[in-house]
Amino acid sequence: MDLEAESTVSVDTGMSKDIADSCNKLLETQKKINTVEDQLKILKGVETTLSEQTIPNLMQQAGISMLKLADGSSVEVKPFYSARIPVSKAVEAFTWLRDNGFGDMIKNQISLEFGKSEDNEAKALVEELKQKGLAVKQKESVHPSTLRGFVREQIEDKGRSVPAELFGTYVANKTKITTKE
Questions:
Q1: 3 occurs within a structural domain
Q2: Measured at the alpha carbon of residue 47, what is the angle toward residues 155 and 84, in degrees to the nearest 5?
Q3: Residues 160, 71: one domain?
Q4: Fewest CB within a 10 Å sphere: which of 9, 108, 166, 172?
């Protein structure tokens, strides 16, 4: 077997140019995407300012909460609520919910992990739990929609505050424009 004869490779230089051109086009496209994404971030910031500050403030100064336009569209400012439990505050948040009578919002899932050498123990425990009619995994969480609804209810309906640092709450007035189609 002649290794030198088999190691000869012919390279099509025309293909190299095509590859280089395609790589340059990819780089240009990635730059354009980054530019458009930066522009989108700026536009979203402008939208937030108009929706949550400018229009609600102007409508409040005018003493109105809803406005019908000549074309049949309507402009309305409504409270907006957002909440999420930061991972670093989960234990404190769940404790607060339980201590204040809202523990039933918490979903509780249980699971166990065993090391490679603990296969027999894992099988035995699973069998024991199955005999008791249990499926075991554990993870505590509150569904985001449930948490948002809870925060809205506490603030709007009950006039209570919830610890913002535990629930990552964000409350703002938000403009909703309904166009007539």
A1: no
A2: 40
A3: yes
A4: 9
**CA 160 – CA 172 distance, rounded (Å):** 16
Phi/psi region, residue 41 (left: phi>0; alpha: psi -120 to 50; beta: rest), is: alpha
pLDDT tens for 83-142 read 999 999 999 999 999 999 999 999 887 777 777 788 888 888 878 887 888 766 667 788
Strands 170-178 and 74-82, how do they pair? antiparallel
In DSSP terms, which residues pair with 79 in a beta bridge? 173
What's the domain count of the chain? 3
Indicate yes or no: pTM above 0.90.
no
Smallest CA-to-CA distance from 77 within 58, 91, 104, 98 is with 58
What are 109's two structure tokens? 């899932």
Cα 27 to chain centroid distance, Å, stands at 29
Domain of 126, in residue numbers? 107-141
